[in-house]
Design brief:
The protein has six helices and two strands, in the order E-E-H-H-H-H-H-H. It is mostly helical. It has two domains: about 60 residues, Orthogonal Bundle (Helicase, Ruva Protein, domain 3); about 40 residues, 30s ribosomal protein s13, domain 2. The protein has a two-stranded antiparallel ribbon with strand order 1-2. A hairpin with a 2-residue loop joins strand 1 and strand 2. It is elongated and about 65 Å long. One of its GO terms (cellular component) is cytosol.
Length: about 120
């Protein structure tokens, strides 16, 4: 099993898909990594040798912000918005949608499970 950036990459998946298990690497970034290192798109993770896994690890460490560093960076940006007291920061603080979605109905992912209000008939 290949371990890159502290994440175990599934061995039966293609390299392009397996890399997306790392936080901060999506399909496009994983395709770019494979292209830079010259891997065929149909190669599986278990077909990589130790030297190739090491090349992937070094490239990711050198050129991309992933996992813990990226999570910390995003959390700091959200905290900065909340400290400023700007509209987006207030929405984060209240646990409401940040990007202009309606909240009268919907927004259940952000607001949580619906809570009944006593005495609200009619």
């Amino acid at each position: 099993m290949a371990r890159i950036a502290g994440v175990n990459i599934p061995t039966q998946k293609r390299v392009e898909i397996g890399l997306t298990y790392i936080y901060g690497i999506g399909r496009k970034t994983s395709r770019d990594i494979c292209a830079k290192l010259g891997f065929a798109t149909e190669r599986r993770v278990h077909q990589l040798n130790d030297e190739e896994v090491l090349r992937i690890r070094e490239l990711i460490d050198r050129e991309y912000t992933v996992e813990g560093d990226l999570r910390r960076q995003v959390a700091m940006q959200i905290k900065r918005l909340m400290d400023l007291g700007c509209y987006r920061g207030l929405r984060h603080r209240k646990g409401l949608p940040v990007r202009g979605q309606r909240t009268h109905t919907n927004a259940r992912t952000r607001k949580g499970k619906a809570k009944p209000i006593a005495g609200k008939k009619k």
